[in-house]
TrEMBL record:
Pfam families: Esterase. SUPFAM superfamilies: alpha/beta-Hydrolases. This is Esterase family protein. The lineage of its organism: Bacteria, Bacillati, Bacillota, Bacilli, Bacillales. InterPro entries: AB_hydrolase_fold, Esterase-like, Mycobacterial_A85_antigen. It comes from Paenibacillus glycinis.
Length: 246
């Protein structure tokens, strides 16, 4: 049975305006940790597929558990919602809305959040997280804004050929640190880009990243392309980049 303390979550709904996105705004959900205070400062985790990370990944409940019971330093989570019909167009590097979404993320979302909440300003305090294409777009956002981001959580990253090519063409990636997992049953995933072996895609991406100096924590585990698999690894992924309270 889940400890009731974990279920007492503070999640604030926000809307950020945008000159890049055709809709001119985007909905967010912002998790505030137990004991939150404007007088303190916090690291932050930015999640693609925000609604899914909160509803299916249960990331707010997991965060409470890490903070209350494991001594992880309190942190804020920002879930960025996405229209599933437009997800590939925004998240895939060859998508029609990709540049607009990446620009919105780096130039509008970050200033909005950091202007409203007490977020630490150094890049070590910002983490990008995503599943599938969300992992891919997190990598591309970090490439586009290297002064803002260098820590990425990727669950079964959809590193299709366009992403692999971009990684191949990148220069020094030694500032990047990635937590990457993929399910061993993800060998014939049917996507709107075709049928792909995600295990091979992630192995290839890891190889390219490490050849360019990036550090990876990489794992292949029994599992498929579903939240029931990814959710198991959210605690470990967060511990990887968040400090323990002294």
């Amino acid at each position: 049975m889940t400890d009731q303390r974990y279920l007492k979550r503070t999640v604030v709904k926000e809307v950020v305006t945008s000159r890049y996105l055709p809709e001119e705004s985007r909905s967010l959900r912002v998790y505030l940790p137990p004991g939150y205070s404007d007088l303190l400062s916090y690291p932050v985790v930015y999640c693609q597929d925000g609604e899914q990370f909160f509803n299916f990944g249960r990331i707010a409940t997991i965060a409470n558990q890490l903070i209350l019971d494991e001594g992880v330093e309190p942190f804020i989570i920002v879930g960025v919602d996405v229209d599933l019909k437009l997800r590939t167009a925004e998240y895939a590097p060859d998508g029609a809305r990709h540049h607009a979404y990446v620009s919105f993320f780096g130039e509008e979302l970050i200033p909005f959040i950091e202007g409203k909440y007490p977020i630490r300003q150094e890049s070590e305090s910002r983490i990008l997280a995503g599943d599938s294409l969300g992992g891919s777009v997190s990598f591309h956002i970090a490439l586009a804004y290297p002064k803002l981001f260098h820590q990425i959580i990727s669950f079964s990253g959809a590193f299709y050929p366009a992403s692999l090519e971009i990684a191949e063409q990148a220069g020094d990636l030694s500032p990047l640190a990635l937590y990457m997992i993929v399910g061993l049953q993800e060998t014939a995933f049917k996507s709107d880009h075709g049928v792909f072996n995600f295990v091979e895609l992630n192995r290839e991406m890891r190889k390219i990243l490490e050849s360019k100096g990036a550090s990876t924590i990489y794992g292949e585990h029994d599992g498929d392309h579903i939240w029931g698999f990814w959710q198991q690894f959210i605690p470990e992924a967060l511990r990887t980049f968040l400090r323990m309270e002294s």
